[in-house]
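Fig. S4 source data, part A: sequence.
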Amino acid sequence: MMPRPAAVLPYVIDGTAENFSRAVLENSRRGPVAVNFWSPRAGPCLVLMPRLVRIAEEFGGRILLVMLNTDDHGQLVTRLGVRALPLVQIFRGGEVIDSLQGVSSEVDLRALFARHAPASDAVLQAHMRGDTAQAARLAAQSALERPGDTDAALQVARLLVLDKRPREAFALLDALPPQARDEGEIAALHAHLALIAAILEGGDGPVLSEADGLFREAASALARDDHEAACERLVACAACDPDYRQGLALRAARALAALPMSPEARAHIDALLAPRR
């Protein structure tokens, strides 16, 4: 009897009609999911299965592998439009985005997984080697190829901040596509690091515009721990030039608003930002 895939690795599980929505569709909104449609009566499927398990092990959980026995779940298979076996489909965001039909080689399977696996490992490995420039390039490439895959960039940036290398952390996040820099935690950290970078520059460079001058004044205020003054300058910068560095001033003000401060300062900053929320 063939061993149950779920007993092999924690990221190789059995798929069923009952768990398909959770195991495949919901999980694919957090990361890539490979579904292997197979039958114990089909010899090619039995050839393919151990190859898939080996590839899943190589990728160490960066892609969840779901094994779905078509003999047991015919109605689901019909609804999904599966007509020939073996078939491996990649789900992302609840949709099929890639597939391989037939008894694929390990080379082809590995290439399929590599196209869709998050780049976190490669980015972190580059950083651990001390090659932050390569980490930044890989993170930016990953964000372009896989929108939403910014976990590695955020993790490396945090490590650089802890290592007292804020300029490199800012450069890494600044290299990301604009839409990636606007996402949640990355937006806040990128904006905060932009202020720190301005502090470290010390105002030696030329002031390129009124908005640029206001942004530098905000950085100076932040260096004095005067969050209220910093936020005032940032709001003024945004009013002067809403597109300054792709809306950086307002993002920086919102990042400041998330820092611990007195109730009075909080009320003042909330009042400044209220018209722009």
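Fig. S4 source data, part B ends here. The first strand starts at residue 12 and ends at 15.
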